[in-house]
Amino acid sequence: MKDIVIIGAGGFGREVAQLIENINANEKTWNLLGFIDETFEKQGTVINGYTVLGDLKWFENANKDNLWTVCAIGNPKDKYNLIAKASEYNINYANLIHPNAIISKYAEIGIDCIICCNSFISTNTKIGSHISINPGCGIGHNTIINDYASIYWSVILSGNVCINEGCEIGSMADVLPKITVGKWSIIGAGAVVACDIPENCTAVGVPAKPIKKLLKG
User: Fold this and answer.
1) Spatial CA neighbour of 101 closest among 131, 139, 72
2) Which among 27, 80, 86, 202 would be 20 to 30 A from 95, CA to CA?
């Protein structure tokens, strides 16, 4: 078994701990050591049976020969900033894929990806790095999801969709074929995206329309 720690001890971190348990129930793979979290008040506490080991500085003295990690942060900008901060520690990132997820052998997947139960990833898709795909999502053929994106529960991305860097796609949103969502944009829950969405904005509704411009970075 390989040792693993989860960066982020919030709600999504606890769900990822459950995902690891699900993976191990199918095949013994991971020895979960605990969580890493920058929140001082959480450090040293025990959450659902796993200790919050410390902040990112914990990696300074860790034996990395058989150590892996995954970043369980939902908000893409927070995830980006935390991974940038963690880069100095030469961390090995794992992919966590639920045993019930169906993934084409022709799909490409980067590093530090979390793919939850009942998700379907079709043929010739390209999934970047540091991406979370929550339960019940459907990813159509030839779709591209770029780095740091977060795809929430029961999202449908049709064929030939492009989700750019840092996008956040709300639960039960439906992105129609050949649509592009610009960098760091947010698609609201339940939206139907029928036309391209520019970068750095929030879009909601049926059909989805931009309602707010977001600050870059």
Assistant:
1) 139
2) 202
Choose the final residue of a domain: 94, 109, 138: 94
pLDDT along the chain (217 residues), means of 10: 97 98 97 97 96 97 91 97 94 97 98 98 98 98 98 98 98 98 98 98 97 79
The reported pLDDT for the residue numbered 65 is 86
**Residue 32: which domain range?**
2-94
Whole-angstrom distance, CA of residue 178 vs CA of residue 216 = 25
Q: Phi and psi dihedrals of 23, rounded to 5? A: -60, -45
The H-or-E segment that residue 86 falls in is helix 76-86
Domain boundary among 55, 72, 94: 94
Q: How many domains does the chain have?
A: 2
Query: Which 3 state secondary structure label does DSSP give 137?
Result: coil
Segment holding 15, helix H or strand E: helix 11-26
Half-sphere exposure of 207 (CA within 13 A, CB side): 8
Same domain, 204 and 119: yes
